[in-house]
Design goal:
single chain; mainly alpha; two-stranded antiparallel sheet; globular
């Protein structure tokens, strides 16, 4: 069985746009479009971002695993290139420190009209364009350094997938219990 709408069709693109809009609204409602919430995560004063990210990873991951198990979705595992992951992580980290948002929260914050987020969004688009134009020259050289192939945790450990999801859920619930809740009355805490 497969989903009736292809992601490359017009209907699939409309569904993806609606899902993206809902995701952005939820990010905003979760307060992670607020610069202070993101910065205070790094200052270990507000764990809203960690809570939202763990919730998204657990719920989304288990949902995708269930869809895959019922042949309603298929995995498209990308190859792991260590050099590209390291450089990409550094670029991502520097960008997040400078902007105060990750790409998802940055786009959602831009949609709320925050000028610094709009500037960051333009930077993300520019970075994507630069990457697209330089990709052909890098794909067989730099981007292939440390090629590990298409791997998943279940490929490199003897631990079954369901156990990984149980462990991740237990870690998330434990953190939710141990971490202090955000104080909504002091946004700049």
């Amino acid at each position: 069985m497969s989903l009736p709408i292809s992601t490359s069709s017009t209907g699939g693109l409309i569904v993806a746009a609606i899902a993206g809009l809902i995701f952005g609204v939820l990010l905003h409602r979760g307060r992670v479009t607020d610069y202070n919430v993101i910065v205070n995560q790094f200052r270990l004063k507000d764990f809203t971002v960690l809570r939202i990210m763990f919730t998204a990873i657990v719920v989304g991951g288990i949902g995708v695993a269930l869809l895959h198990a019922n042949d309603l979705a298929s995995f498209h595992i990308k190859p792991t290139y260590l050099a590209a992951v390291i450089v990409g992580a550094l670029i991502f980290g520097v960008g997040m420190v400078l902007l105060g948002y990750c790409p998802g929260t940055g786009v959602a914050a831009a949609a709320t009209g925050r000028l610094h987020a709009i500037v960051g969004f333009v930077g993300m688009i520019a970075g994507g364009i630069v990457y697209a134009f330089t990709y052909p020259a890098m794909k067989d050289g730099f981007l292939a350094i440390g090629d590990q192939g298409k791997i998943r945790m279940t490929d490199i450990t003897p631990v079954p997938e369901v156990v990984w999801w149980i462990l991740l859920t237990v870690v998330a619930l434990t953190l939710f219990k141990l971490l202090p809740k955000a104080q909504k009355d002091s946004p700049g805490a």
